[in-house]
Design goal:
Structural class: alpha+beta
Strand order of the largest sheet: 1-2-3-4-7-8-6-5
Largest sheet: 8 strands, mixed, barrel
Number of strands: 8
Distance between the termini: 76 Å
Strand content: 15-25%
Length: 297
Amino acid sequence: MRNFRKTLAVILAVIAVSCLTAAVVLIVRQVRDTIQTSKNTEELRPSADQNPETEPSNSLPESEPAESPEPSSEETEQPPSSEAPSPTPEPTPEPVVNPYSDSFLANEDMAGWLQIPDTEIDYPIMWTPEDEEYYLRRGFDGSRNSNGCLILDTDSCLDPLTTNLIIHGHNMKSGAMFGTLMDYEEEAYYQEHKTVTLYTKECQRNYEVIAVFYSQVYKKTDQVFKFYKFFQADTTEEFNDFYDNIKALSLYDTGVTAEFGDHFITLSTCSYHVENGRFVVVAKEVESGDTYLPIQN
């Protein structure tokens, strides 16, 4: 009996040591992957941080202030014109160089760059229609990385633009990828982080958060609202079904409304409130930013 107890104790000790070793190895790998992710992302950002220097036109030195000439007597004696002045047409914005051109050139799988100002979410988005999960456990350079990358759903499309762009990302404990997305659970956090920016090859797209909610991946036979199945609204009914459901599910009222013809971006990450749970942030496109020149090799 004593020998049995000793043997059992040894076995349990070995199992405990093995589990502890595996846990340490896993933690070390995650830390290493997070450091590598941060390093790779920082290397991709420099071109986005470059602000082209512009020279002010028609400027005068501070020591030589411009003076307005006094009107001549002939000018003051002329009767006012009866015709209303024609409005000055607004200048058409000129295309500018894409701030993420180097990143697009570095990997053709990059579909865009997602940024939520003043947060940790500032990453490239990968799109591989032939294999949606290719970057699930790979970094931007294709090397193994537990953080993976942000992934644009294969049923989403930027050209032509679908009604809804769904972006998936891991909920990492380190805060990497969508590890901080669930901060939107608090309305106070939303109030300080209302905007989402998407940089594509062609232009900048600006969004405002419209709904925040918990959901899950359901069985195919479940007759419920499945946010992850909505990509294109060709009719008002299709649009309203998505819009009404996300507003009803939202944890709080953002006050942002939408109508048929609007476009959305949906950010989705894992949540553990239920099996196959998801935490979702939906934002509506509110305005377009810069239009970019074609990217040249």
